[in-house]
Write a structure and sequence with these properties.
about 400 residues; alpha/beta; Aspartate Aminotransferase, domain 1; 2 domains; seven-stranded mixed beta sheet; four-stranded antiparallel beta sheet; 15 strands
């Protein structure tokens, strides 16, 4: 049997890039490396016993249904639960607008597949979630960076994005910057987007991880038919379930559903039933406060370590929730170039440059605090501080 001498890649395949974060995580597998790089939930937060009991109940009560092919829209009771929870947060949606996805990352891919043509403009924050850039890039958009401040996109900057297919935002404890949009800013952005004819894609994987007060209502609550909302169970239950969801306007939902059907038929029905069995009776009301308390303590430990160990000229935010600190180094320092030296010193971080669609700021980096105990956070930040101090001294 003859075989082809070579494979010809599609143009979109040439635009696929490896995840910088995933590549860095390979480095952190070396013994003795304190990783402040990965945005992984703390394994100690996984509700193992609740999951075990839920699996047993699902297999006892509905084994055939749980192990069979299922509806592409998702498990009905889980969709109803999502709609009810969002209603409590101010986003009124019907369960028929909820599509259960194989992780919220799939939701981003479906949005790109349905809404992006080659050469069409897509507006994003600066910086923005690297995984979204990766999801959208194969569809060959022209990215437009929207000017941002400490609360995210500035409403007056949205006019420059008029004509874009959508604006992608993370208003709650953003990855990578940790920033959040206040209530007034959300209304301003929604109104400015409406004036510019700019639909909104709102991604909210971290909104339940608040430390002192819950975030304001979703922007999609104001955007109405002009908004798509994405959420995830990865940060509140376990990422290994690969469960997320999107809420779409009725006019757009059928095309997203068709794209989902073409991609994988449906999200694993067993996983959906298990997750619903865990959460349906208010489990998250007791589980999430424990996760928040743990992450708050680790946030405070990293804040103290950064205050103690970073050399003069470095700046950082203090996130009110989520999983990340964003650090700005003195001008002229390159976090990508400094990463190997940090690894040699025994710690790892994620350089900030890959989170920009254009004009990356090389003097930025992201630190995650949720998977490392406070004593190791201090050791890791101390090692980073020594590397930065040496780099600053070498430039004098």
């Amino acid at each position: 049997m003859s075989t082809p001498s070579h494979w010809q890649l599609a143009r979109r395949a040439e635009r696929l890039e490896p995840s910088v974060i995933r590549e860095i995580l390979k480095i952190t597998e070396k013994p003795g490396i304190i990783s402040l790089a990965g945005g992984l939930p703390a394994p100690e937060s996984f509700p193992v016993q609740a999951m075990r009991e839920a699996c047993q109940r699902v297999l006892a009560d509905s084994p055939s249904e749980a192990l069979q092919y299922a509806a592409s829209e998702g498990y009905g009771p889980l969709r109803e639960w999502v709609a009810a929870q969002l209603g409590e947060q101010g986003l009124n949606a019907q369960s028929g607008q909820v599509l259960i996805t194989t992780g919220s990352q799939q939701g981003l891919d479906l949005v790109g597949k349905v809404l992006i043509d080659a050469g069409s403009r897509v507006a994003v924050e600066a910086p923005t979630y690297l995984g979204a850039l990766q999801a959208f890039a194969p569809y060959e958009p022209e990215f437009v960076a929207v000017d941002c401040d400490g609360q995210g996109p500035r409403a007056e900057a949205l006019a420059a994005a008029a004509g874009a297919r959508f604006l992608y935002l993370l208003p709650n404890f953003q990855n990578p910057s940790g920033r959040s949009m206040g209530a007034a800013r959300r209304v301003e952005v929604a109104q400015a987007a409406a004036r510019a004819g700019l639909p909104l894609v709102e991604d909210n994987p971290y909104g339940d991880l608040w430390f002192d007060a819950p975030p304001p209502p979703p922007i999609s609550a104001t955007a109405g038919e002009g908004g798509i909302y994405l959420g995830s169970f990865s940060k509140v239950l376990a990422p290994g379930l690969r469960l997320g969801y999107l809420v779409a306007p009725p006019a757009l939902y059928p095309k997203l559903l068709q794209a989902k059907q073409a991609a994988d038929l449906h999200t694993p029905g067993f996983n959906q039933r298990v997750a619903h069995e865990v959460i349906r009776n208010g489990f998250l009301n007791t589980h999430l406060p424990q996760v928040r308390a743990r992450y708050r303590a680790q946030r405070d430990a990293m804040r103290a370590a950064l205050d103690k160990h970073l050399p003069a000229g470095c700046r950082f935010n203090v996130p009110a929730g989520g999983m990340f600190f964003w650090v700005e180094l003195p001008d002229g320092l390159d976090a990508v170039a400094l990463l190997p030296k940090a690894v040699e010193a025994g710690m790892a971080f994620v350089p900030g440059a890959p989170f920009y669609c254009h004009a990356p700021r090389l003097n930025t980096l992201r630190l995650s605090f949720v998977t490392v105990a406070p004593p190791l956070i201090d050791q890791g930040v101390a090692a980073l501080g020594r590397v930065l101090a040496a780099a600053i001294e070498a430039r004098r």
